[in-house]
Amino acid sequence: MNLDNWPKHIHKYLFLLKDDFFQLPYLYNSPQSMIEGLKSLPIAKHNVASQFISVTSAIYKACIYYRKIEKGLWVLLTNMNIKQNIVTISSYDENTFNDYYFLNLTLFQHKFIVKDSQQISLLNTSWTFNKPYTEVPNYFYKQTDGKIISFAMKKDWVKKLLSSKKIMERKTIIQFLNNKRGFYRWVDISPDTHGLAKDLSEIIQNGNNLNFDHTALRKKSTLLIIDFFKNVSNDSRFLDNISLSNLDYSNAAKAEKIIMNNLHLPFQGIEYIAKEVNTSPTKLKANFKIIYGFSMLNYHKEKNMLFAKQLITNPEINIKDIANTTGYNSSSRFTASFKKRFGNLPSEVRQH
Length: 352
Hints:
single chain; eight-stranded antiparallel β-sheet; 352 residues; four-stranded mixed β-sheet; alpha+beta
């Protein structure tokens, strides 16, 4: 794939329906190539002065803001409204050198049905780190809304930042950057994330190419990036620093899609998921742990517990219904799991 062939590629694959998901390809070499690729979409409109791209269709709507903060650092903010299931698929211009790392903060509202067909929205927060030349599909479900804050960083910029902030694990993080390929995900790792993301989003959206506040933009971006590294630098995946094939990353992403789409049910089992993904259970089990930091079973449990914790704050939903919504067939089992994860009973959390 290269940028010259991109219009032909888009014509062939844009919103192609496969496995109940409409495909949305995009270029991922650098922030510049990503912007050029988005601008060339037949459903996109580009406002140069505002550094803003809007994408509108019956399947998907997005508003993309892009800002170059300084040499080696860009930030892109994408506000998304998903009308049908879509999968974004990264591609690379083979003729362009790629030395950008992408750190993505995803905040999405997932809609679930509880008792009496009551619909609730739950905030799903995750960080992903993409090394150059790593191709990973990302699945988004219909009737969901959210945003992605993407930092495109060069290695020299990261080294300079970590040195200036005196991060204890600096050497480990720099070593982690050295492998050619990699994709990793973390779930809701910091209580400060949402406030910092809100502040940064407001700065990005309220400025344009001529007048946005570079100082505030750099400060908030740096705070978010540092907060991420401080919270994940002791993760064993940084020390192991394992690179997989793009097919392995794709298969693990498909497995996560299956887990996320069935959170309201008991865990379906590694063998079932591996069969659906068309790979071996042993390989999928190992690769999923490398990428997501959890076994598939524990990832299912962790997501359910985080969703349950959000539901607990709504006094109109009783605990029995929360247990059912998160895949537990008894309130007592749910209560025990909740206390084991958070240290308090659901009723105690609700009282606070």
